Amino acid sequence: MSSKITAKHILVDKKTLAEDLIEKINTGTRFEDLAKEYSTCPSRKKGGSLGEFGRGVMVKEFEKAAFALQKNQITQIPVKTKFGYHIIKRVR
Prior knowledge:
By secondary structure, the protein is of the alpha+beta class. It has one domain (4-90): Roll (Chitinase A, domain 3), CATH 3.10.50. It has helices spanning 15-26, 31-38, 60-68; strands at residues 4-12, 49-54, 79-81, 84-90. Strands 2-1-4-3 form a four-stranded antiparallel beta sheet, sandwiched between helices. It is globular.
């Protein structure tokens, strides 16, 4: 098993917005489209793509949530870090 994963995320300032976006994703809106529209991270230009990363690279709350996901799964509860609220999608 690889010690690296590939993930995307949407970063927003408000938990309520993150919860609304999770609901939109769950009802069929494309994750990448929402990332481009709402994310405050520069990765928004790439549909939220963070590429491949291993442990010890991201802040611990983000890392714990990202590595706990299965492939193509998204977090159903916004992940709070010092940067704001993340919706994370594990790609592989």
